[in-house]
């Protein structure tokens, strides 16, 4: 079966590096670092952890009051990335909205909204749980809000597969385009920090949660909390591709991840020690692996950030054009996405 | 027939829900119209729910952490489906097997006890979080059977199970995997129940899908899974083919985060897509397993749309016997649709008594013979996603 | 603070109405459809708002629909049941 290639027509990003493609390219050139902090309760009092945070306020310009007032932050982050990607691709409201598929990958989902709903269950003696908070607490709330704002009546899907969410979601995006279910897909990954998550980082990782991130330190935990959003506008690769193409998407379990010396290796290593052995082996088999996670932090949607970063790096002439991005989990699963990006000659 | 060449064979089905812990038991209960309602106390009220029979749930189901129960149910239903398909561990090892499971509770971090301790400043132990990280339903099914293909947990709210089956079929068609275990799973959960109560869309009595006086849904729990297989894999091992998935539609209302589009535009588009993929006309459909939750809004959309699009085609909801199992509904109802194709009859729409004058037609009141090879099952999600599956019964 | 004034304030705050202030809501203005333009999700949220801020329970939406016609009708409903 011939692999269906996808074209990347637009990119929208927001993360600890800032908002937009230029901010991401700057961070790739200069090196990334956490831009904020979170406060967590410890036995010894409040502790400040470094974190990669997003200021989502610019999304307000994309949404009218009626749609805005109910939107949870998870959906606002998604919208921020999606609208930038649509603008970047030049996909405007004149294009048929039913021909646009929405696929969102999220590991953390609408966790903050879940806790907001629990707050309303717990307060007032449990007599006043909020239906609005409940409606926002489902993992699919970002896609629902996006669909309403964009008036996108095509297929939609939310994937919850922790760090393998982006590669799993990319399989869906590819199938929809291969089958002709839609001609365009908005593919995105969004993850939001919340106080419970920050607390867990401190409890699970202790001092190591202070970083700094060092994805190639194979014997240490160095992950730093991150949140953010990436959206890619995808079509079948049948004509022009603004950023290049996704040539292959594979899920490999307990098997060979074929190493291709002709492609740059982008490792999804993000300082999580549970996955270090797998990344270490892959890195040892390649002359010059890179890891972009210090630019955006550790979050389940990381592989989507790797794709955006690699595409922008190639365009800026600071990264290879032919790339394979690999994400591992702790259970011998590998998400392998091979791409060929446009270089600086465009 | 041409479409059969593009249809994806279903070689196994498995299911557990309030109506039965096995396909056989559920079939008996469905056609007997036997309601098994449990009354669950929440606050000062009792609420009807469709709970699994504790005597027939998987081992350890009642003891383990709540977050792993979704996955345990999925493993149990997947086990029945794989057994039904004759896919032994040895056969599975030689194939690339994907897992696609829809859920709501299985992807939610809503451990109330943990969170109460956290906001009280008592710094709770993070063991519940660790358990949650081990509780992804697709991962649990894949690990339980040693499956090496792609995994996807679909979190599309109430259409998740149908979407999972439709997406897994695409994987088979394009060669991503040879076999896929797909469906949905969900468990009764106080937090989710409180949410639906707050929306005031539950019925304080056993639900009445499509009835004029319907007041809302009853929650249920369970899992329904199917085994999808490539035609070459099924042929190579001479697998029994129960049915073929010939059409899948997925379309969104883009209307509201909790109410369906009253005009049913997303559902209509999903129906059209599924029929187009199956190369069928509405008159080819022998019956419809409706979403039919019993809420005024949902049933109004389907109760108007189905008689319009499918005049004279019998339709009914089985949620009067299973409750609304959220992410599991599409999986359970896919299994039911396949059973109905085999039995050439559909169960009565239990709970329906009085015609709603707004509807041009009515659901089936009694067990009804069907004539034809194609059954349609739809799922309408909270937040506006609509998924439609069309199955072809095996040729007689 | 009188019931009508408090109602307007909690409606604006709890329903997150950014584009209107409490003073801009007329006592006899329709809350749903025309007027303030609230929808079905606001209706069930309003049930929670009334319970939370006034301690008054609305049992179902048949009861709610009549009470929610306007600020006036809702205030009367609350005052009757709160014994105020």
Structure write-up:
- The complex is a heterotrimer of chains A (346), B (396) and C (84).
- Chain A has helices spanning 21-30, 65-68, 73-89, 111-122, 131-136, 141-150, 165-179, 195-205, 276-284, 293-296, 302-315; strands at 6-15, 18-19, 36-42, 45-52, 100-105, 156-159, 184-191, 225-226, 228-236, 244-253, 264-267, 322-328, 333-341.
- Chain A is an alpha/beta fold.
- Chain A has a single domain, classed as Peroxisomal Thiolase, Chain A, domain 1 (3-Layer(aba) Sandwich), CATH 3.40.47.10.
- In chain A, the strands form 2 sheets. In chain A, strands 1, 2, 5, 6, 7, 9, 10, 11, 12 and 13 form a 10-stranded mixed β-sheet that branches. Chain A has a 3-stranded mixed β-sheet with strand order 3-4-8, covered by helices on one side.
- In chain A, a hairpin with a 2-residue loop joins β3 (36-42) and β4 (45-52).
- In chain A, α3 crosses α6 (141-150).
- Chain B is α/β, with parallel strands linked by helices and 396 residues long.
- Chain B is built from 14 helices and 14 strands.
- In chain B, the strands form 3 sheets. Chain B has a 10-stranded mixed β-sheet, with helices on both faces.
- In chain B, α3 packs across α7 (137-145) and α8 (160-174) packs across α14.
- The radius of gyration of chain B is 20 Å and the shape is globular.
- Chain B starts with a helix and ends with a strand.
- Chain C starts with a helix and ends with a helix.
- Chain C has helices at residues 3-14, 40-54, 61-67, 71-82.
- The chains are: A alpha/beta (346), B alpha/beta (396), C mainly alpha (84).
- The interface between A and C is medium-sized, with 14 and 12 residues.
């Amino acid at each position: 079966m011939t692999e269906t290639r996808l074209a990347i027509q637009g990119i929208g990003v927001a993360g600890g590096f800032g908002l937009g493609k230029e901010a991401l390219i700057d961070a790739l050139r200069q090196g990334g670092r956490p831009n904020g902090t979170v406060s967590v309760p410890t036995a010894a009092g409040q502790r400040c952890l470094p974190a990669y945070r997003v200021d989502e306020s610019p999304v307000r310009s994309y949404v009218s009051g009626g749609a805005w007032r109910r939107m949870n932050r998870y959906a606002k982050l998604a919208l921020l990335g999606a609208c930038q990607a649509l603008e970047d691709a030049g996909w405007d409201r004149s294009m048929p909205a039913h021909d646009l598929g929405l696929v969102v990958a999220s590991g953390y989902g609408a966790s903050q909204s879940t806790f907001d709903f629990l707050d309303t269950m717990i307060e007032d003696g449990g007599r006043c749980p909020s239906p609005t908070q409940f409606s926002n607490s489902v993992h699919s709330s970002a896609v629902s809000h996006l669909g309403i704002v964009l008036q996108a009546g095509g297929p939609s899907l939310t994937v919850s597969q922790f760090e393998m969410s982006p590669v799993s979601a990319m399989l869906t995006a590819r199938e929809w385009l291969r089958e002709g279910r839609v001609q365009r897909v908005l593919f995105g990954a969004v993850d939001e920090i919340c106080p419970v998550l920050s607390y867990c980082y401190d409890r699970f990782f202790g001092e190591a949660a202070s970083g700094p991130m060092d994805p190639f330190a194979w014997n240490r935990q160095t992950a730093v909390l991150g949140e953010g959003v990436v959206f890619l506008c995808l079509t079948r690769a049948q004509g022009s591709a603004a950023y290049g193409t996704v040539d292959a998407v594979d899920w490999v379990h307990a098997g060979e991840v074929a190493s291709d010396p002709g492609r740059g290796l982008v490792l999804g290593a993000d300082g999580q020690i549970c996955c270090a052995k797998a990344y270490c082996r892959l890195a040892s088999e390649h002359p010059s692996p890179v890891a972009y996670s210090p630019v955006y932090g550790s979050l389940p949607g990381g592989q989507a950030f790797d794709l955006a970063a690699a595409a922008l790096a190639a365009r800026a002439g600071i990264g290879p054009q032919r790339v394979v991005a690999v994400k591992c989990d702790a259970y011998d699963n590998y998400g392998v996405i091979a791409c060929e990006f446009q270089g600086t000659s465009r | 027939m041409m479409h059969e060449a593009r249809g994806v064979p279903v070689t196994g089905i498995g299911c557990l829900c309030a109506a039965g812990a096995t396909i056989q038991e559920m079939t008996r209960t469905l056609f007997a119209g036997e309601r098994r309602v449990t009354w669950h106390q929440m606050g000062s009220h009792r609420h009807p729910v469709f709970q699994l029979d504790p005597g027939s749930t998987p081992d350890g189901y009642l003891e383990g952490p709540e977050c792993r129960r979704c996955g345990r149910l999925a493993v149990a239903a997947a086990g029945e489906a794989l057994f039904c398909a004759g896919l032994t561990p040895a056969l599975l090892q030689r194939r690339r097997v994907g897992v696609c499971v829809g859920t709501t509770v299985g992807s939610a971090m809503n451990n109330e006890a943990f969170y109460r301790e956290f906001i009280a400043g008592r710094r709770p132990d993070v063991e519940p979080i660790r358990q949650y990280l081990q509780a992804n339903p697709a991962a649990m099914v894949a690990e339980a059977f040693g499956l090496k293909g792609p995994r996807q947990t679909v979190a599309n709210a109430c259409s998740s199970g149908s979407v999972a089956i439709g997406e897994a079929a695409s994987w088979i068609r394009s060669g991503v995997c040879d076999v896929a275990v797909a469906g949905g799973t969900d468990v009764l959960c106080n937090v989710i129940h409180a949410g639906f109560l707050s929306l005031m869309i539950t019925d304080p009595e056993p639900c009445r899908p499509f009835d004029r006086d319907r007041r809302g849904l009853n929650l249920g729990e369970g899992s329904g899974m199917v085994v999808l297989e490539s035609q070459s894999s099924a042929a190579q091992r001479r697998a029994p083919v129960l049915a073929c998935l010939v059409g899948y539609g997925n379309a969104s209302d883009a209307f509201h985060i909790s109410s369906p589009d009253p005009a049913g535009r997303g559902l209509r588009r999903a129906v059209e897509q599924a029929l187009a993929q199956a190369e069928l006309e509405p008159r080819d459909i022998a019956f419809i397993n409706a979403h039919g939750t019993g809420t005024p809004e949902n049933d109004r959309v389907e109760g108007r749309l189905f008689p319009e699009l499918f005049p004279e085609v019998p339709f009914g909801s089985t949620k009067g016997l299973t409750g609304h199992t959220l992410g599991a509904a599409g999986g359970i109802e896919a299994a039911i649709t396949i059973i109905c194709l085999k039995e050439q009859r559909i169960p009565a729409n239990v709970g329906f008594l009085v015609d709603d004058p707004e509807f041009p037609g009515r659901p089936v009141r009694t067990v009804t013979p069907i004539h034809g090879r194609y059954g349609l099952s739809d799922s309408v999600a909270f937040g506006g996603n609509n998924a439609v599956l069309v199955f072809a019964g095996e040729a007689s | 603070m009188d019931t009508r004034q408090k109602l307007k304030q909690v409606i604006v705050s709890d329903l997150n109405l950014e584009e209107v202030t409490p003073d801009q809501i007329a006592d006899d203005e329709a809350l749903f459809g025309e007027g303030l333009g609230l929808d079905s999700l606001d209706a069930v949220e309003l049930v929670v708002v009334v319970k939370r801020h006034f301690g008054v329970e609305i049992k179902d939406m048949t009861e709610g629909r009549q009470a929610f016609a306007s600020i006036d009708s809702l205030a009367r409903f609350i005052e009757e049941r709160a014994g105020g």
